[in-house]
């Protein structure tokens, strides 16, 4: 099978031939039709988890994927060949990931069935960004009328978070460049803050000198940099970071709740998100779909930033064409 791998931490991704894996006890072999691209994919191959998790090389890149169960191993009862499934497929100790024609998953892993009406492309775009957004908004304890800043709202996680927060009745302040402003408003943003014109915290302070209720920060890399954003919160507010940039103990001193979120895609959450996407209640904008052979170049481009939606890699390009964005039309 074809797969995109790195041979060591920090190496350039390359397209190679690997043996198609065989499912062991409790495992399923999935023929991948689409793989979703996330910043986490290259953070991992850069070595973000090298001190905490064992990695096998060559390491197939990617976590998110959608495809069809090709074969089941002994003892598998939850899935059968022909089932359409999606979820997170990264298994670092085994060197397995989703940027491949085939991958393995544990039947009790982070996977769920895809509704008939949801395309592989949209399903592959959901797991990491959708689950993170869903769990971030739940953890923010929003109430109707609360004001929430989503810092980094224009990317994959942010666009889903806008939709979930708006459903809670929150007033969403979303960062984004003017070219995306209409799109972010359509998703549910009340105000779009052009972070390229002036620092976001200055613009929010000017409009909300009394303080806001919550921040979901998808941008700030370290706790040392987050003070201006943290300073926007009223007492009793919540600051949630997806980059481990909050220091809950320091924030607690002034009555602000700090949360460092690590997404946890259960089968139940994945099923909920897929159903919402299938009926158009969760919209996912696809920036680009590229064949697996172009993935190394696409990763280089995508990691430079400027995401305006999700990038999806299509391993079985011709076969997958019939499933591209056809069923729901959501973009
Ligand atoms: N902890 C977890 O479980 C978890 C899960 C998912 C994601 N994450 C992390 O969360 C972050 C967001 O993920 P993602 O998938 O949404 O990434 P993404 O799709 O690359 O989106 C990031 C967005 O932030 C925008 N941005 C960059 N600098 C900004 C700034 N100073 N102010 C406002 N917006 C800015 C980017 O626009 P421009 O590039 O045009 O500036 C881009 O649209 C990443 O760091 C990712 O690793 C963590």
Automatic annotation (TrEMBL):
The keyword NADP appears for this protein: yes
SUPFAM superfamilies per UniProt: GroES-like, NAD(P)-binding Rossmann-fold domains
Keyword NADP found: yes
Family annotation (Pfam families): ADH_N, ADH_zinc_N_2
Residue ranges occupied by any Enoyl reductase (ER) domain in the UniProt entry: 10-313
Record keywords, A-Z: NADP
Official protein name in the record: Enoyl reductase (ER) domain-containing protein
Native source organism of the sequence: Streptomyces griseoruber
Organism placement in taxonomy: Bacteria, Bacillati, Actinomycetota, Actinomycetes, Kitasatosporales
């Amino acid at each position: 099978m074809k797969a995109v791998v790195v041979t060591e931490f920090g190496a350039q991704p390359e397209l190679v031939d690997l043996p198609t894996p065989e499912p062991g006890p409790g495992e399923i072999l999935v023929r991948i039709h689409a793989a979703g691209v996330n910043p986490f994919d290259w953070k991992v191959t850069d070595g973000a988890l090298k001190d905490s998790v064992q990695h096998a090389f060559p390491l197939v890149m990617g976590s998110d994927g959608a495809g069809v169960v090709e074969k089941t191993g002994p003892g598998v009862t939850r899935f059968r060949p022909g089932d359409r499934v999606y979820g997170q497929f990264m298994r670092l100790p085994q060197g397995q990931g989703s940027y491949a024609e085939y991958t393995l998953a544990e039947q009790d892993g982070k996977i769920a069935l895809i509704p008939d009406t949801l395309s592989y492309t949209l399903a592959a775009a959901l797991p990491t960004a959708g689950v993170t957004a869903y769990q971030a908004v739940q953890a923010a304890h929003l109430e109707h009328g609360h004001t929430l800043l989503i810092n980094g709202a224009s990317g994959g996680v942010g666009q889903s978070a806008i939709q979930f927060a708006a459903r809670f009745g929150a007033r969403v302040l979303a960062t984004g460049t003017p070219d995306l402003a209409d799109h972010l408003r359509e998703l549910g943003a009340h105000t779009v803050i052009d972070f390229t014109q002036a620092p976001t915290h200055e613009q929010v302070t000017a409009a909300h000198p009394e303080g806001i209720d919550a921040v979901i920060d998808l941008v700030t890399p370290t706790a040392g940099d987050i003070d201006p954003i943290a300073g926007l919160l009223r007492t009793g507010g919540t600051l949630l970071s997806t980059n481990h940039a909050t220091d809950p103990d320091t924030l607690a001193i002034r009555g602000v709740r700090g949360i460092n979120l690590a997404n946890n895609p259960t089968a139940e959450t994945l099923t909920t998100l897929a159903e919402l996407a299938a009926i158009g209640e969760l919209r996912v904008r696809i920036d680009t779909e590229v064949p697996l052979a172009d993935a190394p170049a696409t990763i280089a481009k995508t990691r430079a930033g400027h995401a305006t939606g999700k990038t999806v890699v299509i391993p079985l390009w011709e076969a997958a064409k019939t499933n591209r964005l056809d069923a729901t039309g959501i973009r």
